[in-house]
Write a structure and sequence with these properties.
The complex is a heterodimer of chains A (111) and B (114).
Chain A: E1 9-13, E2 18-23, E3 31-38, E4 45-50, E5 55-56, E6 61-64, E7 70-75, E8 84-92, E9 105-110
Parallel strand pairs in A: 1-9
Antiparallel strand pairs in A: 2-7, 3-4, 3-8, 5-6, 6-7, 8-9
Chain B: E1 4-7, E2 10-13, E3 19-25, E4 31-38, E5 42-51, E6 54-57, E7 65-66, E8 76-78, E9 87-94, E10 104-105, E11 109-113
Parallel strand pairs in B: 2-11
Antiparallel strand pairs in B: 1-3, 3-8, 4-5, 4-9, 5-6, 7-8, 9-10, 9-11
The chains are: A mainly beta (111), B mainly beta (114).
Amino acid sequence: DAKTTQPTSMDCAEGRAANLPCNHSTISGNEYVYWYRQIHSQGPQYIIHGLKNNETNEMASLIITEDRKSSTLILPHATLRDTAVYYCIVKVVGGSYQLTFGKGTKLSVIP
Amino acid sequence: EAQVTQNPRYLITVTGKKLTVTCSQNMNHEYMSWYRQDPGLGLRQIYYSMNVEVTDKGDVPEGYKVSRKEKRNFPLILESPSPNQTSLYFCASSLDPVTAYGYTFGSGTRLTVV
């Protein structure tokens, strides 16, 4: 599975859009991009995933660049409850059965 | 409600006293897994199970045992706990582990070994 690079931390004002970047420059064609988040000391929670098209669900939007070397998770109207560590994971379908988490980005939503 | 239930949420024990952390899921998932989380080290996988009676080591299996006698349960056993096993533990289950989609995690067990 390709390696990912995320900023260690970010701040976002409440009500504004939070844009969390992820770099995965070595991604291969059959690897998906997944996002999870972990609110303080709770279990990680699945947010969204995509292959090459942009995706949107009730929680967030995922924008993947055309060359697929990076992606951005967008929380359109961040609330205090969105304060969490956000993990970007790149994984090939049919690869190992292990889900590996990196260090993630600590997002702080500020009132 | 679809969920993964871990017990206990908090546990303080002494070195060498055997303990079991239980994990149960109600989603009929075949795949279950245990992680530990430590400051600065992130989430690390301990063991996983693809189905009943099928288990395999993750990245940090030393000092732990697991069993999978029923699909819904996947207990984590510490036969002789040591202080370096003080950590936050999470159980997870998934319908389709060949992707990273749809893992469900429990609420965590904070273990302190003194």
